[in-house]
Write a structure and sequence with these properties.
Strand content: under 5%
Mean pLDDT: 75
Number of strands: 3
Low-confidence stretches: 150-154, 211-216
Structural class: mainly alpha
């Protein structure tokens, strides 16, 4: 490094020459420091200072001042690129997470509105069901004849008996019903049989009278000849 030199005698860094760095940022060789050691101040800015020897194993913060700037820039660029990649990756993840968050929030809002709508509909349906159940219960009470307890102490009025509905059950026809009905003896059937028998008796009496009134006479010769003629035909 050709720029390193003593700020008092301007001797450059060579073999056998040791330079010292002051706290105010100036460099001096051993000879200059030995001549002005009693002063304890910088030869350039004249302020009190401390000194340290320039050696390879000195503090890294001090070594950066004696490093080639190109190497420092190159290293800084690598550091900057490394940090930029990780920052970009983090920003991409945060951006995707933000999009997912807004999408989920929109979907949650939509589902909440849908649930509220269905909840309102369910309440309306429950009201309708309760109304129909009460209406059905009232109709059942009005139509059922068994909802009034009957006991010997209860006196039923004729109006109640007339208003009470009656239930008729249609009889089913069976193959034996006709036979049973045909053999069933009823007053109408008895009177009808009597009228039939009386009619038959009167008919027999009229026939007998008509037969008795008929007079049989012996056949004559003319009628016998006519009969023989008919036989021959």
């Amino acid at each position: 490094m050709d720029w390193i030199h003593c700020n008092k005698c301007f001797v450059q860094l060579e073999q056998g020459i040791i330079l010292h760095l002051t706290s105010c940022g100036h460099m001096f060789c051993n000879k200059c420091l030995e001549n002005g050691i009693t002063q304890n101040s910088c030869f350039v800015c004249r302020v009190p200072c401390t000194t340290m020897k320039l050696v390879p194993d000195m503090n890294s913060d001090v070594q950066d001042y004696f490093t080639d700037p190109e190497e420092i820039i190159k290293k800084s660029w690598e550091v900057l690129r490394f940090q930029k990649q990780h920052r970009r990756r983090l920003l991409s993840y945060l951006l995707q997470s933000t999009k997912k968050f807004y999408t989920a929030r929109t979907e949650l809002k939509r589902m909440q509105e849908l649930c509220q709508k269905q909840h309102r509909q369910m309440k309306e349906y429950q009201k309708v069901i309760k109304h129909l159940e009460s209406k059905l219960a009232n109709q059942t009470k009005q139509l059922s004849p068994f909802n009034v307890p009957i006991s010997p102490s209860n006196n039923l009025s004729p109006g109640f008996l007339q208003s009470t509905p009656t239930y008729k059950r249609t009889a089913k026809s069976t193959p034996y019903s006709q036979t049973y009905q045909s053999n069933l003896v009823t007053p109408a059937r008895i009177s009808r049989n009597r009228s039939i028998s009386s009619g038959a008796h009167s008919q027999r009496s009229s026939t007998s009278n008509r037969i008795s009134s008929t007079v049989f006479t012996p056949p004559t010769q003319e009628s016998a000849g006519y009969i023989n003629f008919l036989k021959h035909l």
